[in-house]
Every structure is written in structure tokens, then in C-alpha cells.
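Input.
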Amino acid sequence: MRVLCLHGKGTSGAIFRSQTSSFRAKLPDPDIEFDFIDGPFPSDPAAGVDLFYAPPYFSFWEGDSVDNVRASCAWLNDYIVKNGPYDVALMFSQGCVLGSSALLLHQEETPHLPPPFKAAVFVCGGPSLNVLYDLGFHVSAAARERDTASRSALSLQAGSSAVLTRGADRWTGLKALDSGLSEEELRAEISCPSRITVPTVHVYGSKDPRYAAGVHLSAICDPATCRTYNHGGGHEIPRTDAVSQSIAALFQWAAEEGSGSN
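Output.
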């Protein structure tokens, strides 16, 4: 099995390798090949990342306009042609935006070709609302407001000062906008003319300011081949034994479903 791994903004393939080490150690197949690639653009570190990891840091685009996301999807597809094929894509944060956009654009523009990967595991990431709008999705005003507010909240809660003064208690989510909303209500904020059809896993944390984005991404995927898991934490991949076991089991499910449907 070959797995394409897409990191978050302001990190790197090497950092993503470290961040996923706990759950990868729980996988039953020791021969899985994980390809941790770097984004094509140098970047400042993501908030708080430089406390734990040395540079270099990368991003998959500079500015999240539709044109920039499309250009990065073209870059990714070219990488897959040269280095693939891949059975599964494992993604975190900005990597989820890239991977989900690549799947949506494939379905819209090149459905006669195989998808860029057979299954997807999204961790703490949502779709590009700009790409969704460009493809004809309805995105509610509330979803757009929350998306903007959550980016600012994430920068504060993940920042070095918050890490040093509050530790794990820094994660407080986006209570002003998310409070009282169920996952079904959040999913209803996005209406889909089409859906991502490969098997998908969506891992998100209810204390993550970007929690709603993760739920929104699950809303644009086929519910028949979609599983979700709330790890209860923030914008991170918790390394506790219980969470690692759960993510490993979901990863294995996605890989098996993807293999069986292709």
C-alpha cells in the first residue's frame, strides 16, 4: 500500500511524519509506504510550530484564491503522475483543503480518469469555500462568517504564547459561533451539487476553532462511504493510546474500502 501524505500550512513532510507517528505505529501492516512530501512554497511556521520543530516550513499555496488552489491541484496531479499511484491520501489542515479540492476538480472536470487516490483520510481540515462556490455549491453566510472567525481564533489558540501559558487548555474552540449547533446542522450549511465519492475518513476535534470546517468537509462526501471521528481535542493529532488506536482503525477501514471499490 502506498500513502500520499499532505501536511498543514507552515509545517513540512518531516513534521507531519512526526505528528502521525503514534497512530501509524498501531497499523497492522508494517510495509505501508508513506510518502511525506513538502509543499512547493517556503512558509513562515504555523502558529506554535517553531516551539517544537525546526525549519524549513512549507505551504501548498500563497493565498487561497481559486486560481492558486487550482494551480496547486495541478502541481499535485503532476506529482502523482510522476510518483504514484497512491492508494490513500493522509492529510492535515491545509493538506485537507488541497486533497479535497483535487478530488472535487477531478470529479467535475476529468471524471473519465481514475481519481488521484482511492481513499482519503482528512484530519482537522475543511474544504476550500472559494472552490466550493466556484463549482456551484451553496455556502451559507453563517459558514463563511465562521470560516473567517475560526482562522483568527486558531492563530491565537495555537500560538506560542498560548502554548507556553495554557498548554492543552488553550483549545477552547469557537464557542460564540458553534455553540448549540449539532453536526447535522453544520452539514446543512453546505448544499452539494455533487459529492466526493471515494471512501473518506474525517477526524476532527470539538475544541478546534476549525471544528466546523471538518464537519463541512464530511458534508460534501458520500455518506455511504464516509466515517467521522471526534477526538475531542484541538487542532492537532492527539497521541494518546485510545485516539491513536481509533485513527489507525479508521485508516485501515478507508484503505480496505478504497481497495475494494477500485
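Strands lie at 2-6, 33-37, 41-42, 58-59, 86-92, 117-123, 138-139, 190-191, 200-204, 226-230.
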